[in-house]
Amino acid sequence: MCTGACRTTLYSASAPATITSSNLLGTFEECVLHGRIEPVSTVQGFKAEIAASGSFCPEHVVKPVTVFFYTLCDNDHFSSPYLGHIRLEKKGYRVPNRGTMQVTLLNPLGTVVKMFVVMYDMNDMPPNSRTFLRQRTLNMPMGASDQDPDAHQWLRYLIHLKFASSKSGKVYLHTDIRLLIFRKSDADAAALHKTGTPYELRSFTHGPSNPKYSPRK
To answer: What are 142-165's pLDDT values in tens digits?
Structure first.
């Protein structure tokens, strides 16, 4: 069994590049999204196409993506994840108050890695507020729940979106978009095949609920 833990220092030079426990996948998710683990490598050349639809369709934009690679465990039985970081303009990306976000990640060769589609509703968002949505896509046993204690081990894709409203109530994506990709290894596929249980990809979107919105700083 591997062991390990999350550090609280933002990309500290002493932070481990390897998270060494399958039981810490949930902790790993939070640590990576908040920049508390030092990556083993950084790759440029990825891009993301960002689009939204609803009461109006803002112009599609293409943004560079900085990709940070991590080692989840020091053996070959676990897939190696990477984080894609998309920095937005200071003014943000204006979106309808209710609609669908689409973020398509492309590798340096221009091949689609993953298309994220997230439905959202910010019609009740007060002016000068902020919130976030996080969509997880799990490769999970058919009939299982995303609240299962093992759900963190089924994670394959994740997108973290930050929303903010202006004084006039217009809604924007702000600051950045973060994507987490778990590359499925041969060992993963063999383990699933061995169980004989049918698996399926399912997406679940969650955000804060108490409170749902916070005042902008």
So the answer is: 989 998 888 888 889 999 999 999
Measured CA to CA, the distance from residue 103 to residue 85 in angstroms comes to 12
With H, G, I as helix, E, B as strand and everything else as coil, classify residue 18: strand
Query: What distance in Å separates the CA atoms of residue 182 and residue 158, rounded to the nearest whole number?
Result: 9
Looking at every residue in the chain, the average pLDDT score rounds to: 83
Write down how long the chain is. Answer: 217
* 100 CB neighbour count, 10 Å cutoff: 14
Q: Rg (Cα) of the chain, in Å, rounded?
A: 18
* ∠ CA 21-26-32, rounded to 5°: 90
CA-based nearest residue to 29, from 68, 73, 83: 83
C-alpha to C-alpha distances, 94 to 35, 68, 141, 164, nearest whole angstrom? 26, 27, 37, 10
C-alpha to C-alpha distance for 70 and 16, rounded to whole angstroms: 10
Secondary structure letter of residue 89 according to DSSP: P
User: What is the Cα–Cα distance from 200 to 216, expressed in whole angstroms?
Assistant: 38
